[in-house]
Amino acid sequence: MCENKIRVAGTVNDSITDGPGLRYTLFVQGCPHHCPGCHNPQTHPFEGGSLREAEEIGQEILKNPMLSGITLSGGEPVCQAKALIPLCRMVREGGLDIAIYSGYTFEQLLEMEDPDVKELLSLCDVLIDGPFLLEQRSLALLFRGSKNQRILNLPASLKEGKAVEETSDRWLGQ
Q1: Ranges of the chain with pLDDT below 50
Q2: Which backbone phi and psi does 35 adopt, to 5 degrees?
Q3: Are 101 and 77 in contact (CB under 8 A)?
Q4: What is the enclosing helix (H) or strand (E) of 28?
Q5: pTM for this one?
Q6: Cα–Cα distance measured from residue 166 to residue 7, given in angstroms and rounded to the nearest whole number
Q7: Other beta carbons within 10 Å of 141
Q8: H-run or E-run covering 153
Q9: Are 128 and 106 in contact, with CB atoms under 8 Å apart?
Q10: Quick one: angle between helices 81-93 and 54-62, nearest 10?
Q11: Helix, strand or coil, per DSSP, at residue 119
């Protein structure tokens, strides 16, 4: 994997389905989970997609004054943690919030020895965690595909060292 470039499966410039408000969604390429029924199976191969500079993507994002945040999806974003850190720093400095999806649970992410994963998580506001489970699929869930997935407040979770559910009305749809 090229550490200074992000392997991108695709982007959505004005998403309303990957978090509250108008969001830029970055779908990274490569996923080790291969969840049955995955919504984005084309993102599984690590060789697919295209390589893009973090700064180029960041400039594209910051040109849109209507965005309230970005969402890192995939694929599995933590597999490209090192490459995503500069993008997240740039977006954070631009005043946008950052959500990240992961097929790993928060607890599994904490157990990882990779300092880049920890830094990436520290730059994000919300984590939607856990694998997609077809048998727990629900179309009634906001910003999640299956009932096992949680919407977590990342700063609070990292501070407490345990999963803390997000309570803001923005993420709960209230």
Answers
A1: 1
A2: -65, 130
A3: yes
A4: strand 23-28
A5: 0.95
A6: 29
A7: 14
A8: strand 150-153
A9: no
A10: 30
A11: helix
